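Progress narrative, Year 2. Work on glutamine--fructose-6-phosphate transaminase (isomerizing) from Raphidocelis subcapitata advanced from sequence curation to structure prediction during this period.
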Amino acid sequence: QAAAAAPAAPNGCAANGHANGHANGADVTKAEPFVMLGGLEGHVEGILRCRRIVFIACGTSYHACLAARKTLEDFAAMPVVVELAGDFMDREAPVFRDDTCVFVSQSGETADTLRALEYAKNKGALCVGVTNTVGSAISNATHCGVHLNAGFEIGVASTKAYTSQIVALTMVALLLGADSRAKAPKRLEAMRALARLPEDVSRALALDEDMRALAGQLKDAQSLIFFGRGYNYSTALEAALKVKEVALIHSEGINAGEMKHGPLALVDENLPIIVIATQDGMHRKMVSVIEQLLARNGKLIILCNGDDPDMDAFAARGCSLIRVPATVDALQPIVNIVPLQLLSYHLTTLRGFNVDQPRNLAKSVTVT
Ligand code: M6R
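Result:
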């Protein structure tokens, strides 16, 4: 199975209805485009009335929730919290009857997430499932939800499920915010960007050869650091998880806003640092991060958009660039992760490991 894969196409049928099989999609061909998610039919009002949305997930699925959090906050104008299922249950965190808890899981069988679902259900919360597996325990036990329809994900490392989860959660956000007139232009822009996403992801996949060459340079590194913030904090976390999981290299994803609170001490001319600096709302801050890393002789690889003049200047100062297509902020993490998935894939094969079956890991973690 390829390490990187395009998300399910959002235009037409990104995901099937959860319980009732209604079609879903973002129809941008009509004058008034709209998002339809059959599996949430009859529940949208209830979700909009709730006190807050609580995302609960593990691993890569947790990262997808982090990537989509701000999109939900922006479009649905609701408080959103994101919880690791295991930690949530360790704390037996408070859940209220007027909460909506969203359980995101590729397999739909992850034990910690399932346990959190039973717990939240007992507290009376509305429970929504976002899974890639029809008939899974989580999709059966939730009140409503969205199926990803990303196809079987066979390799242990989650790749296409991650990108498809962000697509599905973005569509949920667009659906919840559908009545906001103030958000209408931004919503239309996001829907058009969703329709263009397959093309953007194809262009990111075309970086395969470049990523193989980069992996050749990085394969003997002791450690790799990824810096991101805002929407792309999740990209940093997810890329680091992929590198450690399949390439078996120590790797950390760090919120660039935390750089001065400790991580800066690690920076020298030897440690490879990948900085995610695409032209989203965090771009100016990331340019400043790059300046500060360069001032400490950091060895930088910058993931950026194709036509960013700031980055040309950094290339002239010795930084390597990974150029990806630009899209709206909410979808940029989907495009950004693709070359980093490819990088993990090539690091793995060049180091002689099995990309589909990393040591010590199972595809789905069904024990707590
Ligand atoms: O099936 P789930 O999405 O609930 O699985 C959660 C994690 O176990 C999973 O994402 C894991 O982190 C992946 N192997 C990462 O690639």
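Confidence is low (pLDDT under 50) at residues 1-23. The two ends are 27 Å apart (CA to CA).
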